[in-house]
Design brief:
Blueprint lengths: L3 H20 L6 E10 L26 E9 L8 E5 L5 H4 L13 E5 L6 H16 L5 E5 L3 H4 L1 H8 L3 E5 L5 H4 L1 H25 L6 H14 L2 H13 L40
Helix pairs in contact: 3-5, 7-8, 7-9
């Protein structure tokens, strides 16, 4: 007996495969995007110092600050520009850090602010303008898949994406841990690479407070570290390796791992809710 989860995963894989085949979407125009949490302090619990040092001074910076980053990858292994959201007010002091002349924020990342550093409805529209539209302009047609986070489902968000000759599909709620490429293969290695950058910084600058510039620099390095094979293999695991056709065998149940829990603001919550949960 094959369980319901198995059947629904297979059905979605077949559906996506058919969408790509029937519409003639090229691998470089098929995209998955996802939001993920970025902590200023990685809270690894490790101690950092050079080998042979007699004392170890720091295990953590103690910072509770966080940001959100939107990552997107194509089926061919291309990476779209990250969209990094810090806590702040549009046009305010923090926003001016990367807009003023002579700033040293890494290029190739889109920076913005939101009062709680969340991706809300207005920032989804901003992501479309600053990231998706330039990408879609280079393709005759494109295909975007993402999860059921509330800001993704707003009518004007979907219509704005569709105006770019883009087909939009929603990954079924509860199945992102098996079907969403970013969840399965991108977010963890990205955060592992972020942690590596953090650890190197702790050895040299551990007495300092983590700055937004530090976080932006680590994000840029971590995104550079994500390889084409990592991305392509993620698509293979989630979509290309379609689960085999179920064969009803009353003597054996097919075991399929339960999906990972989804993170972020509950779709039923108001986007300004005080109940702020991490994306992951």
């Amino acid at each position: 007996m094959f369980n319901r989860l198995y059947i629904q995963i297979r059905d979605f894989q077949l559906y996506v495969d058919e969408q790509i085949r029937v519409n003639g979407f090229l691998p470089e125009s098929v995209v998955n995007m996802d939001e993920t949490n970025v902590d200023f302090d990685t809270k690894t619990g490790e101690t950092y110092d050079y080998q042979g040092a007699k004392t170890v001074n720091h295990t953590t910076t103690g910072s509770s600050m966080r940001a959100t980053i939107i990552l997107a990858v194509t089926k061919s292994g291309e990476k779209l520009p990250p969209f990094l959201i810090f806590k702040g007010t549009p046009g305010g002091r923090i926003h001016r850090e990367w807009t003023k002349a002579g700033n040293t924020y890494p290029p190739g990342i889109v920076y913005t602010v939101q009062k709680k550093a969340w991706c809300d409805h207005s920032l989804m529209l901003q992501w479309i303008t600053s990231v998706w539209q330039p990408f879609a302009a280079n393709h005759e047609q494109s295909y975007l898949m993402y999860d059921s986070f509330k800001a993704h489902l707003m009518g004007d968000v979907i219509r704005k994406i569709q105006k770019e000759r883009t087909e939009v599909d929603i990954i079924p709620p509860g199945y992102t841990g098996r079907l969403q490429v970013c969840d399965v293969s991108i977010n963890k290695p990205f955060k592992d690479a972020m942690r590596d950058e953090y650890e190197k910084w702790m050895l040299v600058e551990g007495n300092d407070k983590v700055s937004r510039l530090n976080v932006a620099t680590w994000c840029a390095a971590a995104w550079d570290a994500i390889s084409v094979p990592t991305i392509v293999n993620g698509w293979r695991k989630c979509i290309d390796d379609v689960l085999p056709l179920p064969v009803d065998n009353p003597d054996q149940d097919e075991e399929v791992p339960e999906p990972e829990p989804e993170y972020g603001i509950d779709p039923e919550d108001d986007e300004d809710s005080e109940n702020d949960e991490d994306y992951d």
